[in-house]
Amino acid sequence: PKLQQCVWWCGCVCVTCVYAFVCAYLLICTYICVCNSRKDVITVTPWLAPVVWEGTFHTTLIDAIYKMQNITVATTVFALGKYVQFLKDFLESAEKHYMQGYRVHYYIFTDQPEAVPTVTLGASRSLTTLKIPSSNRWQEITLHRMERLEKLIETQLTNEVDYIFSLDVDTKFYGHWGVETLGDIVAVIHPGYYSTPRDDFPYERRSESQAYIPYGKGDFYYGGAVIGGRVEKVHKLAKTCRMQLDVDKANSIEAAWQEESHLNKYFLYNKPTKILSPEYLWQDTKYITPDIKIIRFSQVIKNYAKVRPNP
Ligand SMILES: CC(=O)N[C@H]1[C@@H](OP(=O)(O)OP(=O)(O)OC[C@H]2O[C@@H](n3ccc(=O)[nH]c3=O)[C@H](O)[C@@H]2O)O[C@H](CO)[C@H](O)[C@@H]1O
Ligand SMILES: [Mn+2]
């Protein structure tokens, strides 16, 4: 009874105390810090960009911020040649997990509009199919994504949408992907290299290429399968990479990992303002390490020889 009385009196003192709001504020701060604690992974870069991991953000709180802004998120995917087979799973899983509750406009670039599956879309979600020619080299297909992205933003998206994501189609969503991913210019850490020493990153190492990154330089190895951000920032990225790709083409050099190499070069000098952890780009074939608490988006298993037009 003595202890109960003591707690009761302390409670009364706290409620009436002039410092009660200070205590409450400190309690909330402690709560937020505990919620945000991930000591096992990097959660902020040296240039102060957050790295988004499970356990570092509060979904309800972030939703409350973005819901007031009435945003539209354009989402582009390329499905050329045999890659049209990936569209169904991509779209169906996106409708379950991707930007739920927000206005999303998918733009599907394909050479076979008739092969785009009919997927029931949620409220405020729409899809536009854009017919483009395919190529008999897969490298050409990935290389041209920057140019298409640049032109799409110029002709249709400026003043129409707020954010854009360009995503690989040979993928599936397995978990929540929401507005915590939004930022000015957003990159994803490639799942194959998140614990690789910098000098082993597969950057382009030939100085003749515009994508050249010397040894000793670089922050992360970013995946080409996810590029995002505000439309005007993504436009600048796509345009710059397209121009660099043009220079390489004129010099008959193709970077080690095509547009992904140019993307990594761009991000070296134009740092991403938000970085997504490999939870946002995993590979179905990959062994899951203890720091990966959830897989949100992942590359599906594919037989390269069967789906690509050339080896
Ligand atoms: C995980 C990751 O970051 N993946 C990147 C990686 O290999 P990937 O093996 O992921 O490349 P990929 O074969 O998936 O090609 C990238 C994308 O191009 C499209 N596509 C490709 C071939 C084709 O015949 N039809 C077609 O539509 C499709 O949208 C596909 O998702 O390196 C590529 C370099 O060029 C891209 O940067 C990919 O984004
Ligand atoms: Mn892919």
UniProtKB/TrEMBL annotation:
Bilayer topology reads:
Single-pass type II membrane protein
* PANTHER family reported for this sequence: GLOBOSIDE ALPHA-1,3-N-ACETYLGALACTOSAMINYLTRANSFERASE 1, GLYCOSYLTRANSFERASE-RELATED
Name this protein carries in UniProt: Globoside alpha-1,3-N-acetylgalactosaminyltransferase 1 (FORS blood group)
Show the GO MF annotations: hexosyltransferase activity; metal ion binding
Q: How is the cofactor bound?
A: Binds 1 Mn(2+) ion per subunit.
- Annotated Gene Ontology cellular component terms: Golgi apparatus; membrane; vesicle
Catalytic residues as annotated in Swiss-Prot or TrEMBL: 260
Record GO biological process = carbohydrate metabolic process
InterPro entries referenced in this protein's UniProt entry, alphabetically:
Glyco_trans_6, Nucleotide-diphossugar_trans
Q: Does the keyword Transferase apply?
A: yes
Supply the alphabetized keyword list: Glycosyltransferase, Manganese, Membrane, Metal-binding, Signal-anchor, Transferase, Transmembrane, Transmembrane helix
The record, for CDD domains, names: Glyco_transf_6
Chief location category: membrane
One Pfam match, given by its short name, reads Glyco_transf_6
Whether Ribonucleoprotein counts among this entry's keywords is no
What cofactor requirement does the entry state? Mn(2+)
Q: Which family does the entry's similarity section mention?
A: Belongs to the glycosyltransferase 6 family.
